[in-house]
């Protein structure tokens, strides 16, 4: 079945999974007023694969099976593959009005990393993980599955190692093993798209020592696995008013606290089992791919910031004001620097066994740091150009009122007869993007998603080979080696 329709994807979610929203068990996620918005958003990936306009970008003929499959599942073999993947992520996010879809992106990031680490473990330890990873990858690809990744442990006292915690379950761990498989207990947090994924892939969150060997575990389970509970984050609410909420009214992504209570994982779904030396490497390799995904899906967001600033400058009659033009130049530079770094990270990829192209780590982290460290300033520029009506303007329902609607159309009119309706629409877009609960969500994601700003800075420092610059400085100074 290499490709599914959006309708088949929705149907696959009616599987009895244990999802809770605001303290209540959700009997059917496809009928929940909030989660169904996330399901519709995730359907973008499936609709693109079925749309003649996007089919060539969203799909690829698999070399092994000859079947047409989702491009997300294609193992990147060249810089061209990485550029195509980036373009697909960017376009899907653009159709999602700046919100990443992530229903296949993050899971395949994990699968790429698992291929690499499985090969390394097999070569060094004599394990048989690579064939297991390949079979699982083929299963997900051939069934066109939606994937979530549970990586970040709840961590408890972050100054202590997993085995030193007062409660041993504050990092997910192996608590038992038999011929049936391993049993795991613990919890992961920030698990994106898990309420509406088919499979949950679990990865370690950090480097581990030998005493923490039970915490060195990676595996995959179906979202309705016995003992798995998904507690959905309650930010926002169902949006039906798309005038006041043009982005969040129709697009949403869910995150969960993901609890494992003695969940049984069959042997063929276990990809790391107490090989503690490889836990940190697996976590970092996943991040190398996932931050490339991140900088790809940030591109429509920074483009929209530029577009909002220009639109509001025009509607407010400020496009020729010097400080406004200066802010627009800064926003354009912000967006295009991110785009250039993203593309260059693909072009300067490195090849890693078993024949997978990995984006340039240093450039990926520079791009991510560039985005994250300047995002709040970019939001401030857009809000400054737009004006206070971003938060004090009337609602779409006021506009529809026969009694007061004419006042809004008259008094909110902009430059050159721009109607009050259009200007209010522009204000609502800026509000939803920068000053709503969705806007706050994006600002926190800028700081923490795919790793913190400090983690990106550390990765930049570690990945830059400064020896050449160091020796050059000594030579210019005349210092003998």
Percent strand equals 5-15%
> What is the CATH class of the largest domain?
Mainly Beta
Secondary-structure-derived class: alpha+beta
Average pLDDT: 96
User: What is the correct CATH architecture of the largest domain?
Assistant: Beta Barrel
Biggest sheet details: 7 strands, mixed
Q: How many beta-strand runs?
A: 15
Sequence stretches where pLDDT stays below 50 over 5 or more residues: none
| Number of helical segments with 4 or more residues | 17
CATH topology of the largest domain: Butyryl-CoA Dehydrogenase, subunit A, domain 2
Outline? globular
- What's the CATH H-level homologous superfamily of the largest domain? Butyryl-CoA Dehydrogenase, subunit A, domain 2
Measured as a percent range, the helix fraction is 40-55%
Cα end-to-end separation: 64 Å
- Structural domains: how many: 2
Radius of gyration: 24 Å
Q: How would you characterize this protein structure?
A:
The protein is α+β, with helices and mostly antiparallel strands. It folds into two domains: 6-286, Butyryl-CoA Dehydrogenase, subunit A, domain 2, CATH 2.40.110.10; 298-477, Butyryl-CoA Dehydrogenase, subunit A, domain 3 (Up-down Bundle). It is built from 17 helices and 15 strands. The strands form four sheets. Strands 1, 2, 6, 7, 8, 11 and 12 form a seven-stranded mixed sheet that branches. Strands 5-9-10-13 form a four-stranded mixed sheet. α4 packs across α7 and α8 packs parallel to α10 (361-386). It is globular and about 75 Å long.
